[in-house]
Specification:
3 helices; Ig-like_fold; Ig-like_dom_sf; disordered N terminus; about 300 residues; about 35% strand; single chain; 19 strands; six-stranded mixed beta sheet; Ig_sub; disordered C terminus; Ig-like domain-containing protein; about 20% helix; alpha+beta
Amino acid sequence: MTYRKKLHSSWGLSAGGVDSTDPDSIFAVSNGTAETEPAVQPHFDNATKRENTAAVGQPAYLHCRVKNLGDRSVSWIRKRDLHILTVGVHTYSSDARFAALHTDGSDEWTLRVAHAQPRDSGAYECQVSTEPKISLSFWLTVVVSKAEILSGPELFVRAGSDINLTCIARHAPDPPSFIYWYRGTNVVNYAQRGGISVETEQRTRTSRLLIARALPRDSGNYTCAPSSSDSASVVVHVVSGERPAAMQSGATISAPTLLCTLFTLITFYSHSHFLAKSLYNTRSLTFISFQNKALAPR
């Protein structure tokens, strides 16, 4: 019997597992009770957070707290395939992204997933090697966090007006530690000119860039880059003089307005064509009548 088979036997694991897509179902699992004295038996801290969210590419952490562990060991299991990831502080997975973190004297055993990916989403189990074993289930969700600039991909601003850009880090599990603004490949330089300000609210994961009294040289590609999210960009055009109606504050022509305009043009073209044809026919008839009168016998 290989060491892995012994581990499966020791932790009561079967040959295959099912990873439910419903986080609530894994929390309904009944935990066994260790055959030890109630005063000293290992047990879980029920206040532990059991649903966790991480951003793609960022580390994910699942925290399991075990009281009165004694000489037992703590293991982390991936439930979809019943794969043993760690035992104690040792890793038993070929995927080096998985590791167990523990400080001597602490009752916390943490599973860390470095560079989390969407495929890491699912159920995990913290097990204690009592007889019978006890276990506690956790659910991990790995999301793609992406920034969004509310003005859309393109913005037209009249020279002398303000450039006002708002960026939101969507689906960020934690507030970003910073949100940078770039113009082209360079960070927006506050010292380059006056009238530039940035207001970032970590709680709402929002950042606002204001450039007062914009000039044509302020045109360019502006990028919002939160610390833990994919970036977003907008092309800003600072236009001198009057702008076409479609450019007003980045406005667009609505579908009803476009259809109405198209219908008017078609109607105008039809009437023009009809009038031109009628005029041509009238002139032709007049010319034929004149010819007939000229050729008639006197």
